[in-house]
Structures are given as structure tokens and as C-alpha cells.
Fold:
Amino acid sequence: MIKKSADRKRDPIPSQAKRVFRGKIFEVWQWPQKMYDGTLHIFERLKRPDTVQVIAVAGDKILVQSQKQPDRKQAFTSLPGGRCNHRENPLVAAKRELREETGYESNDWLLWKQHSPMGKIEWIIFTYLARSCIFKQRPRLDSGEKIKNRLISFKDFLNLAEDKNFFDPQLVITLLRAKHDRRKKAGLYKLLFKKHI
Amino acid sequence: MIKKSADRKRDPIPSQAKRVFRGKIFEVWQWPQKMYDGTLHIFERLKRPDTVQVIAVAGDKILVQSQKQPDRKQAFTSLPGGRCNHRENPLVAAKRELREETGYESNDWLLWKQHSPMGKIEWIIFTYLARSCIFKQRPRLDSGEKIKNRLISFKDFLNLAEDKNFFDPQLVITLLRAKHDRRKKAGLYKLLFKKHI
Structure:
């Protein structure tokens, strides 16, 4: 059920590349790249842990967050989610982040999209659908999170495309297409709520 | 003429941050960040040179490229543009890139949008309009570029939103909005061609 448009594979870092720096989040990799005139140049790309986000459906509503982080002045709108831990499977990470950040759980998970936002960074954002979510416990936020969760209607979910504090351009594109195409809108509704709009 | 939505400032790297690595393109910066519970964690962000791209209008057409790069298997669709050299003013870089990659020049430049695609990277993409472009000389490509330029109609420009090999989500959002809103479409046409659609 991964959309073709979001499924394109970016070129991986070549096998002869060497890691020249390992930071807290980012690794820097370099390799000698043969150019079109036969000369060699040092090329550079990054790796970072993959991230997950969850479109969590509870009843006829969708969970979204208003989030603050210690190094950012302004609150922003987001979906539940975060970074995968080292070697953590993305689905496991998605379930963990949803539980920790919202207290909701689901038994109905679907990998909806995966996307590499930047050619120069080996990094995938996995977007999962968690349908029929049920509230189980209070959220347990870590020391770098201030999160307010709220449940919004499908209409307000489509209107995230107009939210100036929502910074996921790929989802904005998907929402805009759904807003302006009745069939796409109905398809997205069916996918989220498992019934016809 | 910078659109408000694209003008938001991302938080800068704090002044107490230290550069811990300097690569070919990316610099890595770290600082101790106070968390909401008072503890300190090392936070990390990157810097990279700003980039420019140009919507170049010649007659009633717009210049787009099919581009190959030595480390990428597939050709992709792009606008003329590239990285700013060290301390190079973005407008100067935009004029240089347009001339080098296409051979076109213009006397009518406008900074249309500036955008920071990623919160964790201090990096701006400047999008310029170059109107009334005139072909002056053959392109001079560097050893890491294979570029085919072509002139497309305004309609085909809007349809870049559907091009699976065009990877600028911010421009896709702008084009989608113009496609589905007659006033926005007319405004974009007027801005590019300086006459009514």
C-alpha cells in the first residue's frame, strides 16, 4: 500500500565510502567520485537515524500534536512520531512513539508511505497508519518534549495543508491532492476510517 | 515579494555552539542544551552552503532541465541553479548558475521565495525569478553536470507538480495551489510573464 510516488529509492552511499565523522545524530561519509571528464572529486553524504510518524485514527477523529522543543522558540504542529533507536524496526518505533507521546495503542497498523526527503542524506521517514486506536495510559514524555495532543476531524486533517506551523511538505502535497480531487479524498477517508465518506 | 509562508525563520544554531566537524559540504555543530527538566543534553545541527534556483522566463516559455549527476543513477528534472560559493551573494550565484548552465541572461531579477527545508540544517534555498531572459552563449557545464535544457509552456510548468522526477516539494505545493485556484494561477502567470493570462 506504499504509494509509488513516495516509494522512489534515492541512490545509496557507495560501498567504497568511508565514515569520516560520527556525531550525535549525523554521520558524515565521503568517497572519491569519478566525474564525467574522468577526474576524481571527493563526494559527501550523510546518514541519520530513520524517523517514523503515525496517522493515528481514534473513532472518527485523527490525533495531531502541538509540540515544543527546547531549542525551538515556536510551537509547531506534528503527527506523533520520532527517531528510530539504534537497529529498531520502524514499526516497533512507531508503536513505541505513539504509546509514549499519546498513550494510544492500535492493533491495526499499515505502512502507508516511505520517503527520503534529501538526496544528500541517507534517511527515510516512514509514515504509518494506526487505525481504531484506543487510549490506554497517560503519555510519558521525555525531557526534550512538550506535547499537547488533540483529536481533529477529517476535514481539519485536510486543512493541515494550510497550517503555517506544520512542516511536512510531503503530507501537505498528499492533503492538497485529496482536497482537490473527490476520488482521492474518498480514497483517503476509506483508508483511514475503513468506511465510505 | 517573498511569500509569508516561505519566509519563516528557522531557529539559528545557538551562539555557544561549537563546530565539531567540517566536511566538503556539511559542517557539524554541537552545544549543551538545557532540557525541560533542567538536565543538559548535547544537541546537534548542521550547516551547509545555501543554494539558489531560478525560474527563468524566455518569451512565453520557462526553462527547465533534465539533469544527471555522477553519483545518481537516474536523471531528474530541475530548475537551473546550484550551490552558493563561499561568501557569494545568492543573487550573484543565481545569475552565475543561470549563465553557466543555460547560457541565458536577464536584467529583470526578483527574489521570489526563500525556504529552509530542514530544521536540523542551517540552509536556505533561494528561488529567484529571472524574467525576459535572452540566450547569450553556449552553456559551460562543470565535470559533475550533464544537463539538457528545454523551454516549456506555463501549463507544462504547472504540471511539474505531477513529474515523479521533480524533487522540490515546496515548488510542487505552490504549483498545486496555482492549478486549483484560478486567482493564484492568474497571479503566478502575471508574476512570471508580466501580463494577464
User: Anything to note?
Assistant: DSSP finds four helices and 13 strands in chain A. The first helix of chain A runs from residue 90 to 102. The CA atoms of residues 55 and 129 of chain A lie 5 Å apart.
